[in-house]
User: What shape does this take?
Amino acid sequence: MGIFSHLQDDECVARAQRGDRAAFSELVARYQDRIYRFLVRLTRSQDDALELTQETFLHAYEALERWRPEARFTTWLFQIARNQAFDWLRRHKRVEFVALEDDDEAALPDPAPAPDAALETRQHFHALERALARLPAEHREILLLREIEEMSYEEIAAVLDIGLGTVKSRIARARTGLLEKMPR
Assistant: This one.
């Protein structure tokens, strides 16, 4: 446990804004895994997601003075990560769809908690990951924020800078699209 582990995010940010690097390090320790998971699924590259995670925290540190307590730190941080990912996707002109025949199972992280996890569970997970990869980036990101990061609709609206109604309709369209891409 870090020396700041007992503090709330906004207290750590306030200390970091006053120049306390250890307080910012605590925030990095709290959120680096979540940000990385989000970015690896958006970019589909572990190496690039690692680099983007570092860039996200560097960008957050440089912009720390602009953060205000009215915004949740996690929402603000995911917004930075999202912007980093979409800038990267645009720079690298990544294709948004993967052909159904492509088999990227080897590139996906193994979700099994133990080596002896059931084959059926792994197959379902990989099918879900492949279907998710075939969704447009805006649908993929909204499902990741809602289902993986378990953000509320309000938090998602803040991260994506869209209205609450748009969040709800985009989630519905994304879920429908995901179901259509799942093997029967």
